[in-house]
Every structure is written in structure tokens, then in C-alpha cells.
Amino acid sequence: MSTSRQSPSRRSFGRLAAGVAGAAGLAAISGCAPGAGKPSRSTPLRIMAINHVWSQAIRRRTKEFEERIGRRVSMTLLTADQLASSYNVKLNASGTDVDVMMVRALQEQLVFAHNGWLTDLTDRVKGDADFGWSDFQKAPRDASVTSGKVLSVPVVTERPALYYRKDLVEDLGGPPKTLDALLHASLELTDRRKNFYGYVGRGQRNGAVSQWSSFLYSHGGDFVVEGKSAIGSPEALAAYEYYGKLLAKAGPPGATNMSLEQAMPIFAQGKAAFYIDADAIYSSFLDPKNSTVRETVGFAPFPAGPAGARPHNIPSWSLGINRFSLLRDDAWEFIRWASSPKMVAALQADGIPGARASAWADRKTLASFPPQLAEAMRVNAERGLGYDRPRVLQVGRARDIVGRPLVAGILGNRVEPVVRDADAEFADFLVRDNRHKES
Q1: Rounded to whole angstroms, how far apart are CA atoms 34 and 327?
Q2: Of 17, 105, 173, 427, which has the highest C-beta tally within 10 A?
């Protein structure tokens, strides 16, 4: 999801990839823009961010930062669609009226990097011992790098959690620790006559890919290996077949139309035994207004597959600096402050998971989470990979291709021929996507 407590659209930034070549040309033409002009002390530091619990928490604290740098901070919080539209307009025009940008390293960073819209932060993060770049967890840290350059700093992280009904697993020896056990328990607990399902999860072609990624990795597969499609591998095929069977045999009807917004309420209303999705949504199951399972919901780490438990641990939101900003030094000071060990620990203690290993090692920062969930998050963070989708320019198109065999499996169709076709299509896509990168 990407997954945050608010569920922003994953499609919003896809439109930016469509005009990659033209935008890159604009960026090249305006390459001198970063050196233009000199702002006065009255010029505010402008931050554009998603309307998210992290952004809201930081905005409440900005007076402290303003006093530190002697400059006013203007922080604009937008929906995902509004943010995408604003970036598209401002950055295509080499606009200097945004300094700090809240971005998703796994969704739009490659496009922004290709277009020359993000400042290279490599020297700043690695040359600042007090900042402690090595303190950031490896998976989110690696996701912040594009073409060898650090282009963003992760501030919010996300992993999958196994949500389960405690009252239903007592006779099963507790929550399943393996994917085989999850499938067996889901099938056993399904009772379609009573509209009760062993498992609910995302099945929508595009939206399911990010959650399926952990099943793929735990089967020993990946999206891309050595620059080539790997979704036709035996490991990927096994992951496709497993996920399809899980939802086809133990899931609710209409699963192929379900994204987060449709799957989550089914578990919250007590109609499913198991659900795997972003750990950031846990509070939805504890809210008496929306949930009937708040007394019975349990939390567990992602179950182990043939290759072990290999969930994703991603930076759902990060901070970067507009390359055309005239306040890049102050923008960096904001990022240093907002992602400092002290701030990350404080926000994580308030229930907003960060990316610093030191915060995760301090159990006091996890006290606001249910104890079971805190432990599941900690374990998944240690095991996690830093991406939950193909790392390509045209992310939306890639997810459509990769998601096609998922739909086939959920519909009960033979998966192998669909995987074969999707693998060929994805291989061709990767060639074209790489041409975009080189253009």
C-alpha cells in the first residue's frame, strides 16, 4: 500500500511516465535554472507533501525548525492526484516554487530521476557523519538510490502483516508460520454457505502486485533478474499458482475486483479468517466504528515459503529536493531535521513507522503499536526486501502485465500459459522501458 494509514492512489503518478522523453528535454534545456537568482530571507521554504499522518505530525513541529534556520516554512498537504498534477506542472516548467518534495521511491523516483528533477543527495547523506546514513535500514536505503545516486531519504516505511482471527486459530496451534499452513488453514475455515472465507486479499490485476511480491520472493522468485523478466521462472509460476489457489478456493467472490478498499472491510467485518496487507492499516481493525474484530484480531509476521519468509520492507514515502530549488541548502537542513534519529524515534513512538535501524532497535518507539504487531513489524523489517513492484519507469504498465496471471489463477484458469504470455510481454516491455531510460 504503498501502502500509509491513508490509502493514496497508486495510479496518480503513472501519467508522468507517459511524457518521459519530452519532459527530459525540458529538464535538459533548463539545466541552468538551479543557479538562477538569490532568494531573500523572507522567501519561505516550500514543502509539498501527501496529506498523511507523517506530514501532519511534521507540520505541527515546523516552528522548531523555523527557529533553527531563521526562515519561514510553507507546507502544502495534497491528495495523491493533486500532488501528481502539481509536480507535473511545476517540474516540467523548471519551477523554483517548491523546495522539498515528498515522493515515492518505488513509484515516481525513476521518472523524476530520468527527467532530472531531483537533486543528487549522495555527498550530503554520506558526507554528514551526524546524519548517519548507515543508520537507515538497508532495504529502504537501497530503494533510495537510482543509477548510483541517492535521490531521496525515506521517512515512512511499510511491510505486509498477517492479520488473523485469534478465536479461530486456537485449535490450529496459533497463526500459520508457513504459506503451506496458511493455505491449509484457509481452506479448512472457509464456509461459503455462511459467507465466511478463509482468506481475503487483493486480487485486482494492478493493485494485487505489491502484496503478491512477498509471496513471489518467499517462493524464491523475483520480477527481474539481471535486467530480464523473471516472472516466467518456476519459482514465479509456483507463486502465481499458490496465490491464485488461495483466493480461488478460500477467498470471497469478486476477488479479482478487490484492491485494499474492497478487501479490508471484509476482514474488518468478521467475514474472513486471514488477511495479508500493509501493516500501516492495522488501526482500521481496532476502530469500533468500522470493525467487529477489534477484540479478536491478531498480528503475525509474513509466513515462510519454500525460500523462507521474504516480505517487502519499503519506503512508502520519502523526501527529495527539487533540482530547480533556490534553497537547496535549507531544503537539506529540513530533511536532516525531519529524518533525524530524534525525530524518527519520536514519530515512531506515536505510531508512524520510520526507516532508521536505531529507532527499530529501541522498543520504546514501538510501544504505541499492539505488542504482537510491533514484533511482527520488527521481524518483517529485518527480513524485508526494499521493493514491492518492478523498478521501472512505467510502473503502472509493468504491474498490469505482471498482474495478469494473478487474475487467471483467481478465476480458476490454468496459470501456466498465461504466465508464459505475460513473461514474453514483460520481456519486451523491459527492452522498451530501458530504451526510455537511455533516451
Answers
A1: 9
A2: 105
